[in-house]
Amino acid sequence: MDRPRFRAADLHAFIAGVLGSHGVPAEDARQAADVLIYADLAGIESHGIAHLATHRAYVPGLKSGDVNPRETVLVLRESPVSAAWDAGGGMGVAVAPRAMGACIAKAESAGIGMITVANGRHFGAAGYYAKMAANRGLIGMAMCNAGPRGVAAGGVEPVLGTNPIAIGVPSASGEPFLLDMATTAVAAGKLEIARRVGRSIPEGWAIDAGGRDSTDPQVTERGGSLLPLGSRLATSSYKGSGLGMAVDMFTGLLSGQGAGYTNSGMRARNAFWFAAWRIDLFRDPGEFMADVEAFIARVGTTRPEPGVERVLVAGEKEAIARADREANGIPLEPPTVAELRELAAETGIALPAPIS
Hints:
- The protein is α+β, with helices and mostly antiparallel strands.
- It folds into two domains: 1-70 and 329-356, Hypothetical Oxidoreductase Yiak, Chain: A, domain 1, CATH 1.10.1530.10; 71-185 and 227-291, 2-Layer Sandwich (Ribosomal Protein S8, Chain: A, domain 1).
- It has helices spanning 8-21, 26-41, 59-64, 92-110, 127-134, 188-197, 237-255, 285-300, 316-328, 334-347; strands at residues 5-6, 74-79, 82-86, 112-120, 138-144, 150-151, 158-160, 165-169, 177-181, 206-207, 213-214, 225-226, 270-278, 330-331.
- It has a seven-stranded mixed sheet with strand order 2-3-4-13-5-8-9, with helices on both faces. A three-stranded antiparallel sheet has the order 11-10-12, with no helix packed on it.
- Helix 1 (8-21) packs antiparallel against helix 2 and helix 2 (26-41) packs across helix 4.
- The two termini are 16 Å apart.
């Protein structure tokens, strides 16, 4: 698809400027821009700059007061290896990097770090945080719960969020194994993309209010729900449903905020869980990372099924997208560009010109 492309640095400056114009401190605005641009560079367009003007956790939330522009983290409990935070309604994309940074510091000092965060807001792509740990030679995990958009396996009533899980593992090449997945069949942002460009969605992503498969990208706005990973009981949707519940337990219940279904009517609120740990607690890190690299290579060279060029492992597709977009710019859908232009006119922050 022929889409206009923009330099990542230019979009980063635009995001930071827009957030700053709504009272977000400069350092937090730059950090938030880092998280959003990370997603767009990785090809995770459901979690990038497209959310800035439309998602309740960004400009709409700042304008309504649902998001606190000056995050005020309250440390509720702390030990050398753990902590429990309350984010005070601050922007998730500003608070969450601090939380994972604190996990990393604990892990580097004590071997492991684990932090829960309650009362946060949308934290962007979960893989950003797992990769923070992997880039420091640690194994990292990140989870987030969300308001009810998905059904439990076999049900038709929304009770689970998209509840993503991310795992980052360092490898000898320097490019980590990076799993970043929703526990529903697809992230809710994929429906937003389909709506934006006027495309239908595949069967197996969502159902209508009566439990029938739907290809309508607006189905969740019309009483429908997302299906769990696995889609239907016959294709193991109970696995995705179980993972989604586990994320709620690690994030919402462990932090004391509550499971995602208690967020009905205020879907911007999220709870997080982060962990990082040192490899040398178990074995020599260099040997482990060499084994990870060899494992990735073996899986990636298995014979592909018909119609598939080659087998990709978790994180590889995003690495390929990043290489292209760092060199050639980030492509944006025309409707997203139109929304950003409106935001530019509203705030007085100039939207950068596309790359000619």
